[in-house]
Amino acid sequence: EHTIYLKDYAPTPYRIVSADLDFRIREEATRVRAQLTIEPRPGTEPGTPLVLDGDELKLDSIAMDGAPMVLSAYTSDANGLTLVEPPPRRFVLETEVTLKPEANTRLMGLYRSGGTWCTQCEPEGFRRITYYLDRPDILAPFKVRMTAPRSLAPILLANGNLLEQGDAGEDMHYAVWEDPFPKPAYLFALVAGDLGSITDSFTTMSGREIALAIYCAHGKEDECHYAMDSLKRSMAWDERRFGREYDLDVFNIVAVSDFNFGAMENKGLNIFNDRLVFAKPETATDANYHGIERVIAHEYFHNWTGNRITCRDWFQLCLKEGLTVYRDQEFTSDERSRPVQRIHDVQNLRTNQFPEDGGPLAHPPRPDNYREINNFYTTTVYEKGAEVVRMLATLLGEAGFRKGMDLYFERHDGEATTIEAFLKVFEDANGVDLAQFGIWYTQAGTPQVDVTDSYDAASQTYTLTLAQKVDPTPGQAEKQPLLIPVRFGLIGPNGSPMGWTGVSGGEVRDDLILFDRASVTLTFTGIASRPVPSLFRGFSAPVKVTSNLGQEQLLFLARHDSDPFNRWDALQTASTALIADAARGKDWSGTDIDALRQALLDTLDDPGLDPAFKAQAIAIPAATVVARHIGHDVDPDAVAAARKRLMTAMVGPVAERLEAKYRALSSSEPYSPDAGQAGRRSLRNGLLGLLVAGSDRGAPLATAQYTGAANMTDRYAAMAIAAHYWTGDAQAILGDFRTIHAGDPLVFDKWLTASAQAPDDRVVERMRAILAAPDFPRTNPNRLRSLLGPFVMSNMVQFARKDGAGFRFITEAVAEIDRVNPQVASRILTGFRILPILEPARRDKGREALAALRDREGLSRNVADILDRLLA
Ligand code: HT7
Ligand code: ZN
């Protein structure tokens, strides 16, 4: 199979000067006429062929400078169009193709969702619309004319500003859109449909008025207001924080039901998965509102980090994605609570990215080869990419980082560029050398930092030794030391910060250790008594830490650290260790449990802490997180049992108190998605989870909450908890929810997700039945992902069943989905990355299922690529 290498990058011999597209949309088919003005780049040898990309296209006609081309002048097939000897000057190439959007189940290129014509072009979908140089370093201004039946598509949208619209005879009408900003084809978008909308406006910092609109299925308009509010706040934030102003006269968002991803940042015309637009209290949870706010912001921020400055090639994907995730995380931190957001993001990193980085699918944030680019829209590119940008901000400080960003926008606006160019602006703006720091982009694997310390009372010195290593990852046996920023503090016995008179042995700048070697030993002088070190404050680097801190010191940090992230982390580390030990047969002592329980209670009772933070602090680490901590020969049943035992031991003696707290948090105020209310709900639902897992009092509370809930957050939480711990009422609750909510697809998804979490032995059988039901919408990515995603990623007990039935269920489902939508299929398959940490019998069953899948005929490149890496 063909592998593409970064080292082979070369600019194309020809460039596209401008693109004029004419779409004639009809019920049966869509005709696309493209007029591309093309010219050779300086230095191109006359006679060099021009190779345009295509994917499942059939050429209807072709002309050059207005005259039909002779057959010998070109070759064409489904995958491309080659002009054998183009003229050595500027020329206009005109092609025509016919598309069948109705039959496009891959949802790449032009397709139909609920009757609406829409597009998805990133990364390589434009070549499914017309023959083109479909790569991100080809930037051109686009003009789009579209004609469609007025009755089917009264709304006609494309990128940029509307130039004209009008009648086109009979039932037809047309619109012409022009996008003056040169862009790569992956940012192209078009929408034609019968849609409702809400409108608003935003006045920019220079006083320009931007017309905003969100388009959606009729009847859903009322559910778009939170998205609109999020958009306006995002626009204001990017001006305040980064000085970035919006550039077109209009900004449109369209919500569609069939979508391969969350959303897409097409210039001036963002297209969204409707689950990230629609929200009302009866059907959306607090987490849904949070997700909408984040993704609306993310796509909007791409206008500068991604669109105005784009990627030279797809190896540079994290140039736009890592940076834009960093920006959306910062936005949410500023809008809500910074520590709560940080904990949320780190939890996500640890549950999703660390497993990717430590398994068969590991790759650097900037990979150097790929077979299928769609398989590289990963948590490593996105979330680890964001961590790398965050470390840069930590190293340079807020002002230094902003100086670098300003230079980035100034120097590279209108360009397709690279990670090297990105690092260079920070070097130039701050007069620093980031060569070693840059290794974060090219080296895969989560660094492991081992910490040991000692104290010498006689000399009043404290010694801290840090050692870093990265295990080999596929294709990268040797690893280099990274520059790891360690934000830290020393805490004295009374819980207050400790200063020092001197430090030697390494580079320490205020509260930041610049840890850049395999190992470093720092000696602090003037330390009057043994401190407890608080390291990696705010999770200052994406690393795993092992240390010689015992439970007592961890719980001391949980109480006294001035850094809220580390308070949370200390509790997580302490409980992970206890569960992991118990799963491996080494049971805890009563005093360990008593101390942990007391620390949790103290956190709950602390009036100075935010309820949202408390909810995170009392959460017991998920079984998958504990399994990762154990790291090898994992028996998922033993982990689940140990986790349940810990919760029972913790909760048992204080169940009444916890129930009282749970009850005290109930509220009759009208629902609002604001962070304050959402935090109180998450604390109350966290307590419910503890009570259901750890005491008999819980199950009836969950049933009562389910029945009496006044909003979807509480209703869904009660159902999910009942299903997860499989209470006596779980099945009845799931049945009830399905009956009530089957009519709303996005709420049906919640039922699918809760159903997939059930730990009982019949879950696979039930899931098979759900998928086989004749009315199951088996081409819709949201439905498939809602059922299968949570099963492979978090129902370890049933996915990794001893008899292999969970593995086989998934590989069989993947084989079927692959025929419809390879992107969805390959993503579900990545759940098998867990195999290396499982005990051998389960691992073998998993590999058997994968091998049987590999034996099937006609697998997509997407699935074959993941399979080969999993089985390597
Ligand atoms: N830039 C987008 C990534 C993307 C995508 C979006 C929709 C459908 C398929 C897609 N493949 C890749 C989304 C983002 O990161 O903002
Ligand atoms: Zn993005």
Task: Describe the protein in words.
The chain is α+β, with helices and mostly antiparallel strands and 872 residues long. Among the domains are: 310-442, Neutral Protease, domain 2 (Orthogonal Bundle); 448-541, Sandwich (Immunoglobulin-like), CATH 2.60.40; 576-729, Zincin-like fold (Alpha Horseshoe); 742-872, Peptidase M1, alanyl aminopeptidase, C-terminal domain (Zincin-like fold), CATH 1.25.50.10. Helices cover 41% and strands 22% of the residues. It contains 26 helices and 35 strands. The strands form nine sheets. It has an eight-stranded mixed sheet, with no helix packed on it. Strands 17-18-19-21-20 form a five-stranded mixed sheet, covered by helices on one side. Strands 30-33-26-25-35 form a five-stranded mixed sheet, with no helix packed on it. A hairpin with a 4-residue loop joins strand 14 (161-167) and strand 15. Helix 8 runs parallel beside helix 10 and helix 14 (655-664) runs antiparallel to helix 15 (675-694). It is globular, with a radius of gyration of 28 Å. The mean pLDDT is 98. Bound molecules: (3S)-3-amino-4-(1H-indol-3-yl)butanoic acid (HT7) and zinc ion. Residues 120, 122, 260-261, 263-265, 298-299, 302, 321, 377 line the site of (3S)-3-amino-4-(1H-indol-3-yl)butanoic acid.
Based on secondary structure, the structural category is alpha+beta
Strand segment count: 35
Ligand roster = (3S)-3-amino-4-(1H-indol-3-yl)butanoic acid, zinc ion
* Rg, nearest Å: 28 Å
The proportion of residues in beta strands is 15-25%
Quaternary structure annotation: single chain
CATH superfamily of the domain at 576-729: Peptidase M1, alanyl aminopeptidase, C-terminal domain
| Residues in helices, as a percent range | 40-55%
- Strands of the widest sheet, in order across it, are 6-5-9-3-2-12-15-14
The CATH class of the domain at 576-729: Mainly Alpha
Sheet of most strands: 8 strands, mixed
- Average pLDDT value? 98
Low-confidence stretches: none
CATH architectural category of the domain at 576-729: Alpha Horseshoe
- Number of distinct helices: 26
Question: What's the overall geometry?
Answer: globular
The fold-level CATH name of the domain at 576-729 is Zincin-like fold
Distance between the termini: 15 Å
Domain Peptidase M1 alanyl aminopeptidase Ig-like fold: 445-547
Family: Belongs to the peptidase M1 family.
Domain Aminopeptidase N-like N-terminal: 20-187
EC number: 3.4.11.2
